[in-house]
């Protein structure tokens, strides 16, 4: 019973948190928790302590790796644009679709957070709907909260 149960009359009786004919399937979902706190990044199912990614674009142990996905900057561009400047593709749906990060306005680019802080940080330069550049940073802290700093 792979050490996770007791064999009685040639049948494994599994200890709590284990299942399967040989007690070789862990019911512990901890190894499947992605950095955002979701099981398999919300893009798969946790089977025997391993993610089975159901979204074919995503892979890796917690379905967080995506080779064909947009970068952080492009992914959040529309939400930053509507939250900071009230324009862009998501202007009408901004309050529903773009409430997933904390936003701070700064006066100039040199007031943006700089690399070297404890949280992973992306510096972004994107074009808005009027073909003007705007600048922002995107970071996620240890509590899983996303923080955006945008130049006014």
Tell me the layout of helices and strands.
Layout: E1 5-8, E2 11-14, E3 18-19, E4 25-26, E5 44-47, E6 50-53, H1 72-85, H2 94-97, E7 101-106, E8 121-127, E9 133-140, E10 146-151
Relevant terms:
mainly beta; Laminin; four-stranded mixed sheet; single chain; two-stranded antiparallel ribbon; 2 domains; 12% helix
What's the pLDDT, averaged over the residues?
A: 89
Q: Can you write the helix and strand succession as a string?
A: EEEEEEHHEEEE
Strand order, main sheet: write it out. Answer: 7-10-9-8
Tell me the span between the first and last alpha carbons.
62 Å
Largest sheet: 4 strands, mixed
Uncertain stretches of 5 or more adjacent residues = none
**Number of distinct helices:** 2
CATH architecture of the largest domain: Irregular
Global shape: elongated
GO biological process, one term: integrin-mediated signaling pathway
GO molecular function, one term: protein kinase binding
Domain Integrin beta subunit tail: 73-152
Pfam families: EGF_2, Integrin_B_tail
What does this structure look like?
The protein is mainly beta. The chain folds into two domains: 5-66, Laminin; 70-151, Hormone receptor fold. The chain contains two helices and ten strands, in the order ββββββααββββ. It has helices at residues 72-85, 94-97, and strands spanning 5-8, 11-14, 18-19, 25-26, 44-47, 50-53, 101-106, 121-127, 133-140, 146-151. A four-stranded mixed sheet has the order 7-10-9-8, covered by helices on one side. A two-stranded antiparallel ribbon has the order 1-2. A two-stranded antiparallel sheet has the order 3-4. β3 and β4 form a beta hairpin. The longest helix has 14 residues, at 72-85. The chain is elongated. It starts with a strand and ends with a strand. The mean pLDDT is 89.
